[in-house]
Design brief:
Bound molecules: zinc ion
Largest sheet: 7 strands, mixed
CATH topology of the largest domain: Neutral Protease, domain 2
CATH class of the largest domain: Mainly Alpha
Number of helices: 15
Number of strands: 30
Number of domains: 3
Helix content: 25-40%
Strand order of the largest sheet: 4-7-2-1-11-14-13
Radius of gyration: 27 Å
CATH architecture of the largest domain: Orthogonal Bundle
Shape: globular
Length: about 600
Amino acid sequence: MTYAGPASAQSADPIRYTVSFPAPHTHYVEVTASVPTEGRPAIELMMAVWTPGSYLVREFARHVESFSARSEQSAGLAVEKTDKNRWRVETGSASRVTVSYRVYGREMAVRTNWIEASFALLNGAPTFMTLADSHHRPHEVAIQMPSGWKRSMTGLAEVPGTAHQYRAPDFDTLVDSPILLGNPAVYEFTVDGKKHYLVNEGEAGVFDGAKAAKDLEAIVKEHRALWGHLPYDKYLFLNVITESGGGLEHKNSTVLMTSRWTTRTRKAYIAWLELASHEFFHTWNVKRLRPAELGPFDYENEVLTRSLWVAEGFTDYYGELLVHRAGVSTRDEYLEALSNQIESLQTTPGRLVQSAELASHDAWIKYYRTDENSANTSISYYIKGAVLAFVLDGKIRGATGGKQSLDDVMRAAYERYAGERGYTQEQFRAVMEQVSGLKLDEFWGTSVEGTAELDYKEALEWFGLRFKRDPRGDAPGKAWLGVNTRNDAGRLVVSNVPRATPAHDAGINVDDEILAIDDFRVRADQLPTRLDQYKAGDKVTLLIARRELLLRIPITLGSEPPRQWRLEVNPEAKDDQKKRLSEWLGTEGGACSFDPPAGQKRPS
Ligand SMILES: [Zn+2]
């Protein structure tokens, strides 16, 4: 979404930034900005408090220091800090003022800055201040590279005939265009005549960039097949290999973080490809086809939307599905990924408390601010949204005899609402109803706005799938407390207490240290084997330490719930069901170029 202002904005005077790194090993970037004043006696500059795609107020201004301003006539203009993220500059009637500041960047995350001796990742929101009241104007960036740094990689357009100089038509584009600087390994491939770059910072001779680029190319082609077009001139996968994680979407790039060992084990590698696929799907779903609330952005306040279950959840569904359709993951691997989403939803108590819509709306205060009780009171809009996508995909295919699918809904919604308009919840539902011929008000009420258990029957029946029986059969599960624990330097400490478990009912608390069961010492690694000594229904006493005070708590052990949310192809599936499964998943696939190095062990 380019929210360029009125046409005249393009011809408005640009803000011109110069960024430099006199001492990158101290984690600072120095920014100067030449800002047009349009003859005003004072101007106000602001720094964003959050960045799109990551729904938390992060107060980027907290890393800014040494702000000063000057003009051709005056070496020191009066400056006043007027808000947590705003600076007012007296212009002295100069037509341009130059402001300077430094930004500390040492957070290894996709939405902030990292600067060190050998490379830097700069994001727009935490780096560039702009005019608070008129940022619909060109923003130009000239980078002074430290000696030895050869490449700057970004989705921004290069200024022709220059090196390391870029131009954004407006502030939104600048914020949407992270810049990776240093000496990354760069792999290119072309789809539809458009250049794609896999930019790897930190391969260290371990991460296999050539293989990753080859598989990304297959995935890009699969996304193009679904949407029918590639909506950009170039695209960059900025892959920061720094033993961190996460991904953030942009209009023609993404920042990914991963481990250098990722390409060495199939499981980690498929997960990374699914992450890249998720972020790439956002190129359409959220960066162009977006909830109405997500643009034009207010960079200084929270922006609330009830549609993140579509923007993120559907993206998660397709991220994994398209890796499989591209022939990169096997059918079993795909069904396992989808089963993980379903199992996670169905074993999270918060699914009965928070709807998909409210999870979206409250992302800022809940999803991005989880605590030890979150699983009891909230649900991830990624997970619920992905599972809703699967259920709806099956429903739509069933209702139209396989003539339409969720793919058609996404294309129709894109056709109608991509660009500056955005969609409301009602409009998105209307597109789905139109494509499927279904009335979805009841489904919406129970499953999107409500917290009823989802019904998988239609989807399973359509695709010829079923949930596997627990391999333990009908035998009662092991004796079970229901707490999650951690080994804290040899101490067995409760990390959370899910609702409707024996531990929850008995009053075991987070941070209790479990010392003994029936006065027999239990060490940190002994809880599962000790519970094997008991059966469901046994009454025992837990000796715990709570804030250094010893307590004896009686508890009736429960029975470990069966695992009942793992999908498999129904062995009794009929031919037409098998055919529908292939229409959904494509070929059986699995021709991933993964080729483990000799002697390498599979992950456990
Ligand atoms: Zn996402």
